[in-house]
Amino acid sequence: MRKLNHTELKRFFTGAELGFADTTEIAPGDGLIGQGRGYAAFDFGLSTRMDGYNIYVCGVAGSGKTTFAKQFAEKIAADETRPPDLAYVYNFKEPKTPKLLTIHSGTAREFKEDMEDMMSLLNDEIVRVFTDEDFEGQRHEITRRLERKKDEELKGITAEAKELSFDFKLSKTGMYFVPMVEGEAISEEDFDNLPDDVRDNITNNSDLIHDKALTVMRTLRGHEAETRKQLENLEFTIALFVVGHQINKLQSKYQNDDEILEYLAELKEDLLENVDSFLTPTEGEEDENIAALMPWLGRRVREDAGSKYRVNVIADHADTNGAPVLVCTNPTYANVLGELEYDSEFGNLTTDYMKIKPGLLHRANGGYLIIQARDALSIPHIWDGLKRAMKTGEITIENPRESSMGVSVAAVRPGPVPFDTKIILIGSGFYHDLLRGYDDDFADLFKVTAYFDYEMDYSFDHAMAFARFAKKYIAEKGLLDFDAGGIARIIEHSMRIAESQKKLTARFNKLCEVLTEACIWARMDKAEMVTAEHVRRAIDQREYRYGLYEEKMSELIEDGIIMIDTDGDKIGQINGLAAIDTGDVVFAKPSRITATTYMGKAGIVNIENEAQMSGEIHDKGVQIIIGYLGQKYAQNFPLSLSCRVCFEQNYNSIDGDSASSTELYCIISSLARLPIRQDIAVTGSINQRGEIQAVGAVNAKIEGFFDLCKKRGLTGAQGVVIPETNTRDLTLNDDVIDAVRQGDFHIYAIGHIDEGITLMLNRDAGAPNDAGEYPEGSVHALVRARLLEFHENSYDDDGDE
Q1: Is 757 within the bounds of a domain?
Q2: Pair (267, 394) in one structural domain
Q3: Residues 373 and 224 both lie in one domain
């Protein structure tokens, strides 16, 4: 056992060690600090474009994983080739399957604008040309020639009918021939009264004239067909001139884009076939009124003639330098994987290829997509969609409801997009282990894991790297500069967060919060620069803001509601130290632990476990105590012991084994009937050999007991026992250090339970001789004698239990 000097209670770091007066003298830092392993893995993963070499960046929150991933990926991407633009257009061959165009990078937006301009021109030009006087004149001449031919044919058939004593009539339903007798038309009744020879003559003539009429009808239909053909040729010639002129300009401009040229050829053909759609009149007022009264019939308003000739750009890299790097900040299924939107018209769902909305996978295609593992797993269907794209090498826009409902509702099926994106998944070790354990595809898809440490070794280089990081953060956020003392104080705080004199925390978000808040306090003081005092105030105020629960517990102890002794001694009673994590802060308060021992066979009974308030690790610690007692005292006789151990006035669950040595002191005190010092609190884990092992939150535990002692008045005898292996973790606050320096408070470091027994029970623990016997009056001798007494009293005079 040794009592620690105040110089061992933290690593003292001064601004003079940094070698600069303030942050105005140093340049901003760039890159990752203290993450060599993660850097190497990330570099390897980004340099490998083979399938499956996506990257999982693993580490605690706030260690700069996302920021680093974005910056590193942007650096790599800047030297890479821009991926092609992507756009969906109408598929003239399969209208329900929009056609995907892969266009030279940076030209999709311009092509879309050119198409819109062209269709706007065509809308006006086609209407203008087809309503022009020259066109109308040519068309009229063609139809007039038809009319002349019809007149000639009809005159001929009329004359022939007259010669055969028939009157010729023409109606909308066809030609009619009425027999004439002596210049008068006769009815059917009159026809029946005619002489037989006259009737036979009329019947023969009727057959002749009908045969001639059929010939005339065939001739007229031929003239009409020829006229239609002439009109179509006229319209085609004019349309070809108008459309071809515009299409040729685009074909010339995009002559190096084969897919655009192919589409323009199909577009030209469709325009020429449907040029009349540009001339269809809009519905009249009467039709509008009917549609208003009966909307379920649907409105027949003419759609824009160019509606199916639009371009839907889904990946535009005109403003991208190198390969794209995107960070997913709004993780919905549609935002990540794209969607097909629908409009509702009187209860009917309608859609078209222009309602295909791209996701981040489309926009990041050919580059890098950074997404949080928690988002990918917690939002339905995203993880499955990502995996499908990585496994198939295609991005398919689907409605996830279809798979869940089993009903297909899509009227449009977008063609798949070739997928070539490096996925960078950011998450904690929990999600990494979850995916590796429960998803068989994860290891094949994410072959690279970049581990980010939550801490780094303390060194001057790392301290200076943090100072440069602070300079960069100050510049980005518009904060005041810090003097060297202020930076040194934050570096000390970094060690405190890491809970080690040999480590600095890698959770830079926590340090950035201190940088920001220290600047706020400096500005409130109207200071021109942030000093160590401002940093100290920022840290103290953060602890105060989150310290309500701690304060309430302190009040309960001070008022005697929670009973804690800080002087004197008691048998079977000791002050343990339990850390409490509220999520915002970690603090500790002493807890009274008691033990009662008596003859029996129950062994050690953990009351917390009996009340279902004990965690698995705490239960393990109790079992280790049983192992120690058996190994230490029961080599020659069996234990006949019943013991109850309890955390008094504890109403929450207890876990961890940091109180196992404390509980053992308490049990030994009860067995040896020796009082334990109440002015010293204890923490430390124990193994079955009695060696004291390191525990967590050692600083909070020391400060928790110190605060109570200070409020009650320091006696000069009070202190805390900690494991020797925890001395490197000490980063205590200035109040504790000052008290130790002045001899008002003490911190004892031990490596074995015997050292603590000697200190806490004010009696030598006792070392066994060669025969395994302990010195008379030693603590171990008293305990062994007590256990032997239990054993002997557990048998009657006949030797039966």
Answers
A1: yes
A2: no
A3: no
Query: What are the phi and psi torsion angles at 589 (to 5°)?
Result: -135, 150
Cα–Cα dist 5/7, whole Å: 5
Query: How distant is the alpha carbon of residue 580 from its chain centre?
Result: 30
Pair (97, 155) in one structural domain? yes
Residue by residue, what is the 3-state secondary structure of 729-774?
A: HCCCCHHHHHHHHCCCCEEEEECEHHHHHHHHHCCCCCCCCCCCCC
Q: What angle do CA 518, 523, 527 make, to 5 degrees?
A: 100
Q: How many CB atoms lie within 10 A of CB 225?
A: 10
The length of the chain, given as a count of residues = 801
The residue out of 319, 341, 369 marking a domain boundary is 319
Clarify whether residues 184 and 60 are in a common domain.
Answer: no
Q: Looking at the domain assignment, is residue 467 inside a domain?
A: yes
Q: Is the pLDDT of residue 379 over 80?
A: yes
CA dist 779 → 595, 637, 719, 763, 784 (Å): 17, 19, 22, 7, 9
The range of the structural domain enclosing residue 565 comes to: 552-793
CB 206 within 8 A of CB 165: no
Do 214 and 257 lie in a common domain? yes
Helix axes 65-77, 36-47, angle to 10 degrees: 40
DSSP string, 651-700: -S-B--STTHHHHHHHHHHHHHT-EEESSEEE--EE-TT-BEE--S-HHH
Q: What is the dihedral of CA 612, 616, 617, 620, to 10 degrees?
A: 90
- Give the whole-angstrom CA distance, residue 565 versus residue 752: 25
Whether 482 and 524 share a structural domain = yes
Q: Do residues 474 and 466 make contact, with C-beta atoms less than 8 angstroms apart?
A: no
Q: What is the pLDDT of residues 674-716, one digit of tens each?
A: 999 999 999 999 999 999 999 999 999 999 999 999 999 999 9
**Do 144 and 219 belong to one domain?**
yes
pTM: 0.77
